[in-house]
What we know:
Elements: H1 4-30, E1 40-41, E2 44-46, E3 53-55, E4 59-60, H2 64-91, H3 102-118, H4 123-181, H5 186-203, E5 208-212, E6 218-222, E7 227-230, E8 233-234, E9 237-241, E10 249-254, E11 260-263, H6 269-305, H7 359-365, H8 380-420, H9 424-459
Antiparallel strand pairs: 1-4, 2-3, 5-6, 6-7, 7-8, 9-10, 10-11
Helix pairs in contact: 1-9, 2-6, 2-8, 3-4, 3-7, 4-5, 4-6, 6-8
Amino acid sequence: MTTLQHILSIANSGLQSSQTLVASASRNIANANTPGYARETVPLSAQLGGLGVVTGFPVASRNALLEQGVVATAARLGFYQSQSNQLQSLEIAFNDLDGTGLGISMRGFEAAMSAVAANPASMADRGQALQSALSLATTFASTRDTVSRTASDAHEQASAVAQEINSLAQQVAQLNGRIRSARPGEERNSLISQRAAVIDAMSGSIGVDTVARSDGTVSLVTASGRALVESTFPATIAVTLSAPPASTVAVSFAQADGSYAASNAPLGGELGGLVEFHNEVAAPALERIDELAYSFMDAFNQAHRAGFNLNGGTGYDFFELPTTVTGAASGMALSRDVDGHPENIGAAADASGVPGDNTNALVLKGILGQEGVLADGSSVIGAYETLGASVSNTLVRAQSGASLEQGSLDQLQNLLASESGVSIDEELIRVTQANAALSASNTILQQLQSMTDTILNMVG
């Protein structure tokens, strides 16, 4: 038989469930635009014996597979975007379209030497050849400076990104500890949302796999298999630069003894993109520019020493050859023999041919385009054009990759939002329904109170 106590229990449970539903919907509305937040639902079930409703703890509507997909895609996007940004800066060094690039200077020097070959006795043409050589040296130096600054910028950015990753990893570890000890329901859901937002913020910086643990914590594991976060313990990473001439960037993980162990596996994300750009694009380009300058000066000097100047002298160097290949593009300079002495340009192949012989001038004119000047058999101009084309092609691939991953990320985020996101309209409907149930439960309680008063009056 149903008693007043039964009715009171039913009404109270209905009142409690309605209040919980209103509170849950209110939290959803308030956090509709909060990063990492997942829509809450409140599970309801009928009590045994028909004694009302059982209200469960609020449950966050999360899809672990989609969330991991978003994290992985964001890492790939960060990788391509960082490479694209750096490559755009590097491409400037090989841009001859504005008329001031290294390729233009090489062609200009060839033209100046052609003028000397056409009129070897002309002091004006010889002087112009020296000026063109100085211009070539300046352009070599500025090109190297641009490449060097781009490489340095990639290293500095990688260090800054590593510091940011360390900070975010520490936050994840701290939230892991709080989640492990948090009460089920609103408190734990809130902390999990905060952690998800931190992981999302990290995802563009480095590639990680998220591994959920039974105690509510997560582990973050990099592509190399090293744990970035394990329970409440964050790892520390550092970016180092080796000494020249290699000058490669390495990412190391802190060990228990305080030392650091380098990770050679791809890292993904912005950090991985910066490291790969520096080590596989910028640093090799810097070495190649120096090689071009050194090999050209060496080959030109050898040919020039075989020529004869206007006074019949021979054996003069045209360039001051550096002692090492590293930095050669920055140190290109005329030798003391020809600097300010256009008459000492060795245009003739034989002293008897002075001043009209242009045989050696024709040889000098062709050095830049001569195959075999470089160790790999290529010419200086050919190698420069190949280097510029390689940078441009790599940029196109990076931009295409970024565009593709951006589209994939947008799709995944939309799918995740459809499952975990908050719809204000739907939440307002839930509030209206819960308020109606709340009002009904309150009416039952009022009627129950009236019935109780009537019975007490009858008994009294």
